[in-house]
Amino acid sequence: MIETDLCVIGGGSGGLSIAAGAVQMGARVVLIEAGEMGGDCLNYGCVPSKALIAAGEQAYRMGRGGAGIGGGMPVVDFGAVKDHVAGAIAAIAPHDSQARFEGLGCRVIRARARFIGRDRVQAGDQVIHARRFVIATGSRPAVPDVPGLAAVPYLTNETIFALRERPEHLIILGGGPVGLELAQAHRRLGCRVTVLARSQALAGEDPELAALALAALRSEGVEVLEGALVTGVSGSVVVSLDDGRQIAGSHLLVATGRKANVDGLGLEVAGVAFTAKGITVGPNLRTTNRRIFAVGDVAGGPQYTHVAGAHAATILKQTLFPLPARFAPRAIPRVTYIDPELAHIGLTEAEARARHGDSIEVIRLTFAQNDRAVTMGETHGLLKLIARKGRPLGVSIFGPQAGEQIALWAILLQQNLKLSALTGTILPYPTLSELSKRAAGAYFSPRLFQNDRIKRVVRLVQRWWP
């Protein structure tokens, strides 16, 4: 029996942030992880995918050339690319390692955890009794029930990064961010790629910007089929669609969403309610057992690493101090790391109109209106600002470094600042971020420069002011 103050189940982004914070503030912490330390983000998600995307971008830039520099067919060593991916993981892994957390003072147990009571967990041959528990077990790829799929050696994000031979023709089930990011990366590395989206690709994004993103992908040779209902998979990799078409490929990637890791945790024994979407939590991330909290993907909310990390502060206030806390951000940013990138925060135009009607204003600026984008030769893109009463409601950006640019808007929306906070800020020139400031300024321009009353006042002042 191990007695502790806090037991964290899961060594991914959320669990590690909580464990590190709690132990460094004096709490006794037990951290349980059955798989790889660092969780999905480090080993199968954010880190390897962005490393692969970086390799694909390098190949694309070399092949395209530009600015007076000739391009040429790049030589792609697919195995070496995967070494680059593995190297990125290895470079970051020590920060999430068992050794580091034991050095901080955590007791780390590498075993599967299962509740055997409302305040007890079994992990291997250890029983942990804790004052508080945090479930941070994350999620895994959701595999659709497609006839014949189980008999085909399909890939998921957990297995594709170990593939060292370049796929001749990669078929991807799923038109969301993961599927499209990996589609473009593999296309740029010399693969033929077909994406099968059950409905619309990038369905959760603003349709105007999603259309621009899909057009960019198609222009590079990524075949994106929307409304493609898969009825079966057979042979090596032959995908049948409901309209009678059959698409043959060399490899199949399933990227049709995520499923919360709740199986085998003994949640019923612990009195923790859950559904297929994840564990049921309140705004304070507490479950139906007051001793137990849930964070990250398993908590059933937005499945982003930055959300899991942000959950940590909410948990630490409640588990280390008798302080109330709620996870209630005004807005959460998201980025699809295709090239150009697609980023969004807040309400889309459709959501804003449904909530506020015609009182909203929509401002659109292209990247051709930004001097830095012109010098880079990267003018394909759009910034779309939704505003009301001098405040931003939502922003979508499709363009170079959109993920970096959305940070400005994340600050404004989270702090509930007015657009004047951005227009009154001096930004360096020339930078891509100036496009955001220009969009904020475009909100005020007609109020200042097309206002007859202001013009009359100015003329009067100029006439009589000595």
From TrEMBL:
It comes from the Bacteria. GO terms for molecular function: flavin adenine dinucleotide binding; NAD(P)H dehydrogenase (quinone) activity; oxidoreductase activity, acting on a sulfur group of donors, NAD(P) as acceptor. Its cofactor is FAD. It holds the Pfam family Pyr_redox_dim. Disulfide bonds join 41-46. NAD(+) binds at residues 174-181, 257. Binds 1 FAD per subunit. Keywords: Disulfide bond, FAD, Flavoprotein, NAD, NADP, Nucleotide-binding, Oxidoreductase, Redox-active center. SUPFAM superfamilies: FAD/NAD(P)-binding domain, FAD/NAD-linked reductases, dimerisation (C-terminal) domain. The keyword Disulfide bond applies. Residues 5-312 form the FAD/NAD(P)-binding domain. Belongs to the class-I pyridine nucleotide-disulfide oxidoreductase family. PANTHER family: MERCURIC REDUCTASE. This is Dihydrolipoamide dehydrogenase.
